[in-house]
Amino acid sequence: MTIYYTADTHFHHAAVIGFDNRPFASIEEHDETLVRNWNRTVRPTDTVYFVGDFVIGKGRHAAPILERLNGKLHLVAGNHDPHSVRKLDRWLTVQEKCEIHDGRDYVVLNHFAQRTWNKCRYGAYHLFGHSHGNLAPQYRSIDVGTNCWDYRPVSLAEIKVKLDALGLLEWVGNKDAEALNG
């Protein structure tokens, strides 16, 4: 089982194509591509933490899409996730923010980027959405919005590769990271 992360799919939101410069001719093409990419990445036994802004609209728009997606789904609510979306049965949990272990790594999830987060000085990761790729990664904090990751959910292993390439994994001493994760 793998844990995946994603945010800001904005299903059913035609305007997102323009303001994010997403490479789709229509919202129907956008939505179908995101569903297909999701299911090519995520197995039914995998877990997905959705870090806000699933759909624009009400639960009646979200429910048919949610039913098509693989995985065990958790919602970390964003500013475009109304009560009608939050209360859908397909979500195993719905939270405003979430802190989990992904293997030996500690991960803090919040739709909104934070300059500092719980256990950041000990090697914890902070994954967020909302910014649609407009905030550069910082320390171990990075945008998991779908448009930042080829329109699909992403694993922590992939996130680490990107952060390492940017030189952002070594800022915490090994001793501190071992204390957190050991």
Describe this structure in words.
The chain has a single domain (3-181), classed as Purple Acid Phosphatase, chain A, domain 2. Helix content is 29%, strand content 21%. It has helices spanning 15-19, 27-41, 59-68, 83-86, 156-165, 174-181; strands at 3-6, 47-50, 72-76, 91-95, 97-102, 105-110, 125-128, 141-143, 154-155. The strands form 2 sheets. A 5-stranded mixed β-sheet has the order 4-3-2-1-9. It has a 4-stranded mixed β-sheet with strand order 5-6-7-8, with helices on one face. The longest helix is centred in the N-terminal third of the chain and has 15 residues, at 27-41. The two termini are 21 Å apart.
The number of helices is 6
Poorly predicted spans: none
DSSP strand count? 9
Main pleated sheet: 5 strands, mixed
What is the CATH architecture assignment? 4-Layer Sandwich
Task: Domain count, please report it.
Answer: 1
- Which CATH top level class fits? Alpha Beta
Distance between the terminal alpha carbons, to the nearest Å?
Answer: 21 Å
What general outline do the C-alpha atoms trace? globular
User: Which secondary-structure class do the elements indicate?
Assistant: alpha/beta
Mean pLDDT: 93
Reading the helices and strands in chain order gives EHHEHEHEEEEEEHH
What radius of gyration results from the CA coordinates? 16 Å
Tell me the CATH superfamily.
Answer: Metallo-dependent phosphatases
Strand order of the largest sheet: 4-3-2-1-9
